């Protein structure tokens, strides 16, 4: 059931068709100066979904068999944050491995590898459930064509980006990729972020990482994200560094052009 | 640093130094708990507030919370302190200062005269003794007026930043949000885009685009692309039509270094903007954003509470005579401000402290989806800040920022506040809205199914293009 607005009270906006141009909530109409019932309820639903995404638990039972199929070894790890409440209040604990996890990964005595991949719930387990496997499918041929070796994959609960550092370090990885659920937006509760770090080790600063954001069907495609990540891996090997030192020059020009293309507020350039 | 103590009921309560006392006296918030400096109990907090109330205001001039030699923000605060302006309150304790602020003696004129005599630490201290109604009432007494292409902060006025963000900086997507905002009477504080990239070429293009839109529709407002000050300087060198130079700032030298800035760089940015002489009614050319928790998040907090550090950021701001300063109060996340209650209180403290220091405070009334907050909380802060005379708030389609992934105030929210509290847009912008047939004060949005004449061609042109 969709709430219907009463046309005698509600004023619709004649520019509703501009919604084709943006996901922003334009042309909502109004009742007096206020939101209509329909727009208000739609917002509440989207907020509820974003909230649920934050609090949804990572479905490790579902994810582990998928990872076992694709990697020689898949590890199930946990951060030092015991639960979601502690995770939200204590970002420092989300960056460290639990004692059990640290012991487990230490006991592996893993052979050195090129790339350590960590799949981390972050702020949206939903992003991991929906984007992680299709993104890995897109990434696999890129890693293969670069001739890189993969270490064990880690699936991490209650983790933040920097948890990839102790994991990559323990696995003797030359570089690390953290796939993490991003802070859910109202229109994007399912967005995956990728953080790339050369020579991962505890204490790396955020400025030493490169980030690829908004990986999801309505955002950056799996294929383009995988290509961009492959570019970073290639360049980082040349440079021996990641982060601000490694500029992303791979990007084709944005759709912005001279700011006039499609900009209906300005006349086309003569 | 000397120890502070208070004797109460035959017991002596001790605080290691002034910073520890300030932290213990701070209303509870997650960021101070994360830093390990919050009061150990509710009783300890109340006792610390009593001890703070007895402290002479002048102590803050003698006992810097961060040493003068270590921090250029401390040096700025103490070097710029105006002893003559301070004289009327120089003999007060923090508690007596609170009483004075609430009394009839504190009005717009006496508070404006006092501002250069106040330090951030003094205003942070007194805010810790205040309830929400005190923060609102005293905030309301302050008037801080600034000018560029219009006049912001006049009594009875409420302005908005039109924030037409788009996740890929798509020109048509940005234009759609700008049109939506203008037709909902938003944008007198600034039309300000957070770009998706820090790429100078993109920034230059966006600045040109905004400049042409403002010129074509003769809108008495200013534009800004919120990029790093170094990118803004580079854009100006490339000839970009820049109205305002933006920067995120914090309250310690080390936290500012984390942002890649220092005071000299801000000075350089301001001079670059001033050199263009683009303001028509004034030359306030800077736009700053702040937020409690930024110093802790940069590991540059010196053991001080986040609210005191936030107030120090306003001392940085006022040095550069900004047009706009806003705290982005709920953006940084629940590890700093956990829930609606903490966000509401922090927003009112920030507005109060900024205004007392003479800073033109606005507020990005906002929350993220991992905070324990919702639209009801934002409505409370919005209404309270409206009552407190906040200079401006954000305006965004349907409260949803699709680029930064957080919720801030909508165009509709500003209309609500204007209607409820009888607040008008900036006078020059109000005249434009009226002449354009978009909005009339007391009547609200002035058109229904037919677009105002100035914009009628837009949909027709779009029909031809597509």
TrEMBL record, chain A:
Keywords: Bacterial microcompartment, Cobalamin, Cobalt, Lyase. Its cofactor is adenosylcob(III)alamin. Pathway: Amine and polyamine degradation; ethanolamine degradation. Its EC number is 4.3.1.7. It catalyses: ethanolamine = acetaldehyde + NH4(+). Binds between the large and small subunits. Its main location: other. It holds the Pfam family EutC. It comes from the Bacteria. The keyword Lyase applies. The basic unit is a heterodimer which dimerizes to form tetramers. The heterotetramers trimerize; 6 large subunits form a core ring with 6 small subunits projecting outwards. This is Ethanolamine ammonia-lyase small subunit. It comes from Salinicola rhizosphaerae.
TrEMBL record, chain B:
It is found in: Bacterial microcompartment. It is an enzyme of class 4 (lyase). The keyword Cell division does not apply. Binds between the large and small subunits. The basic unit is a heterodimer which dimerizes to form tetramers. The heterotetramers trimerize; 6 large subunits form a core ring with 6 small subunits projecting outwards. Belongs to the EutB family. This is Ethanolamine ammonia-lyase large subunit. It comes from Salinicola rhizosphaerae. The lineage of its organism: Bacteria, Pseudomonadati, Pseudomonadota, Gammaproteobacteria, Oceanospirillales. The gene is eutB.
């Amino acid at each position: 059931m969709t709430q219907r607005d009463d046309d005698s009270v509600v004023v619709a906006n004649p520019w509703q068709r501009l919604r084709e141009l943006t996901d922003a909530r334009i042309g909502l109409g109004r009742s007096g100066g206020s939101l209509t019932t329909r727009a208000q309820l739609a917002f509440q639903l989207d907020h509820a979904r974003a909230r649920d995404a934050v609090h949804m638990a990572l479905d490790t039972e579902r994810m582990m068999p998928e990872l076992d199929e694709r990697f020689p070894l898949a590890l199930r790890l946990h951060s030092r944050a015991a639960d979601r409440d502690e995770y939200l209040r204590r970002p420092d604990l989300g960056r460290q491995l639990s004692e059990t996890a640290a012991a487990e990964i230490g006991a592996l005595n893993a052979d050195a590898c090129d790339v350590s991949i960590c799949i981390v719930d972050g702020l949206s387990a939903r992003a991991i459930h929906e984007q992680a496997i299709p993104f890995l499918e897109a990434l696999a041929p890129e890693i293969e064509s670069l001739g890189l070796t993969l270490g064990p994959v880690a699936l991490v609960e209650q983790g933040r980006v920097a948890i990839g550092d102790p994991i990559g370090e323990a696995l003797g990885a030359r570089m690390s990729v953290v796939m993490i659920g991003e802070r859910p937006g109202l229109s994007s509760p399912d967005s995956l972020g990728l953080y790339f770090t050369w020579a991962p080790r505890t204490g790396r600063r955020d400025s030493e990482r490169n980030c690829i954001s908004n990986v999801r069907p309505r955002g950056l495609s799996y294929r383009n994200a995988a290509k961009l990540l492959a570019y970073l891996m290639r360049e980082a090997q040349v440079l021996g560094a990641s982060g601000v030192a490694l500029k992303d020059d791979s990007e084709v020009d944005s759709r912005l052009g001279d700011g006039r293309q499609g900009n209906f507020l300005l006349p086309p350039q003569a | 640093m000397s120890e502070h103590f208070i004797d109460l009921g035959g017991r002596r309560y001790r605080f290691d130094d002034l910073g520890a006392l300030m932290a213990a006296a701070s209303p509870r918030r997650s960021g101070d708990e994360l830093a390990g400096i919050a009061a150990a109990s509710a009783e300890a907090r109340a006792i610390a507030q009593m001890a703070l109330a007895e402290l002479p205001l002048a102590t803050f001039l003698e006992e810097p919370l961060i040493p003068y030699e270590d921090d250029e923000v401390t040096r700025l605060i103490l070097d710029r302190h105006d002893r003559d302006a301070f004289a009327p309150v120089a003999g007060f304790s923090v508690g007596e200062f609170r009483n004075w602020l609430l009394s009839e003696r504190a009005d717009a004129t006496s508070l404006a005269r006092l501002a250069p005599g106040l330090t951030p630490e003094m205003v942070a201290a007194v805010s810790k003794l205040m309830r929400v109604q005190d923060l609102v009432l005293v905030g309301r007494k302050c008037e801080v007026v600034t000018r560029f292409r219009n006049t912001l902060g006049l009594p009875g006025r409420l302005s908005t930043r039109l924030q037409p963000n788009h996740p890929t900086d798509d020109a048509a997507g940005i234009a759609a949000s700008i049109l939506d905002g203008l037709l909902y009477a938003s944008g007198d504080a600034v039309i300000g885009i957070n770009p998706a990239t820090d790429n100078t070429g993109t920034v230059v293009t966006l600045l040109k685009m905004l400049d042409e839109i403002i010129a074509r529709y003769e809108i008495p407002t200013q534009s800004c692309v919120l990029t790093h000050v170094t990118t803004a300087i580079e854009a100006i060198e490339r000839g970009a039509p820049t109205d305002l130079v933006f920067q995120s700032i914090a309250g310690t030298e080390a936290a500012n270094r984390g942002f890649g800035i220092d005071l000299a760089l801000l000075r350089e940015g301001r001079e670059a903007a001033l050199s263009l002489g683009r303001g028509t009614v004034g030359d306030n050319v800077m736009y700053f954003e702040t937020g409690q928790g930024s110093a802790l998040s940069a590991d540059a907090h010196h053991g001080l509470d986040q609210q005191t550090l936030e107030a120090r950021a306003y001392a940085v701001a006022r040095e550069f005579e900004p047009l706009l300063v806003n705290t982005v109060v709920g953006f940084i996340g629940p590890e700093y401000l956990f829930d609606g209650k903490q966000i509401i209180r922090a927003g009112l403290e920030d507005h109060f402290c900024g205004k007392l220091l003479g800073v033109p405070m606005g507020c990005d009334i906002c929350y993220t989806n991992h905070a324990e907050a919702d639209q009801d909380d934002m409505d409370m802060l919005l209404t309270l800040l409206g009552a407190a005379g906040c200079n401006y708030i954000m305006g965004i389609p349907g409260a949803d920022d699709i680029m930064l992934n957080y919720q801030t105030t909508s165009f509709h929210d500003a209309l609500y506040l204007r209607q409820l509290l009888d607040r008008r847009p900036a006078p020059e912008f109000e005249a434009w809205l009226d002449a354009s047939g978009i909005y009339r004060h007391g009547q609200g949005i002035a058109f229904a199914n037919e677009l105002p004449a100035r914009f009628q061609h837009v949909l027709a042109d779009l029909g031809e293009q597509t």
